[in-house]
Write a structure and sequence with these properties.
It is a single chain. The protein has about 180 residues and is an alpha/beta fold. It has a single domain, classed as NAD(P)-binding Rossmann-like Domain (Rossmann fold), CATH 3.40.50. The chain has six helices and nine strands, in the order βαβββαββαββαβαα. The chain is globular. The structure holds NADP nicotinamide-adenine-dinucleotide phosphate. The site of NADP nicotinamide-adenine-dinucleotide phosphate has 24 residues, from helix 1 and helix 2.
Amino acid sequence: MKIAVVGRGNVGGGLADRWERAGHDVTRIGKEGGDVSDAEVVLVAVPGDAVADALDSVQGLDGKTVIDATNLFGIEPPAGFRSNAEFVKSKTNGPTVKSFNLNFARLYDQVEGQSPKPGNIWSGDEEAREVAEQLIRDAGYEPLNGGPLENAGPQEQFLKLMIGISNDIGPCFYRFSSPD
Ligand SMILES: NC(=O)c1ccc[n+]([C@@H]2O[C@H](COP(=O)([O-])OP(=O)(O)OC[C@H]3O[C@@H](n4cnc5c(N)ncnc54)[C@H](OP(=O)(O)O)[C@@H]3O)[C@@H](O)[C@H]2O)c1
């Protein structure tokens, strides 16, 4: 798959490494911006309050499938939006998913070897399910669908619980399973 990562730090760079190892073709974009016209899917992994700036410096976003991995630490989503993910969709008008915001980048290199696989919650548009779930699996996680894009807000707010839990036990994986 042709992937563009906007933000090439812990999350964008870390996932780019993993996806390249899985055979994907990844373009990495930082503050200088770039063109994503060729990409089949775009990951947004910039600071939560820099999304508008970051997307303004990227060309070719119209209609793209986007995975938004951003978090908002103690700040609100852009005015008029319930989540950063819905703001992103307003800029692209394409299928949009919230994912990877509840998975610690510093544990990416420990994902392999975990059994069962760590979970990765995503919420978003059904049109993006196939792409999102493949990229979640290719990063080593088990996809857990949390519902439509309107659930991206609660997913972003869940960060508070993840921070609470990691304050207690340290950076961690999570899993959900049915009884069987
Ligand atoms: N770290 C984690 O464990 C983790 C986990 C889940 C979600 N998140 C979220 O994922 C996002 C990225 O986190 P990170 O830890 O990867 O951050 P990071 O290591 O600081 O990387 C941030 C990246 O964003 C780019 N950037 C910053 N401001 C920008 C702007 N105005 N326009 C375009 N690009 C800009 C930087 O570009 P340059 O390379 O040019 O400097 C850099 O590549 C954040 O929203 C964070 O809350 C983090």
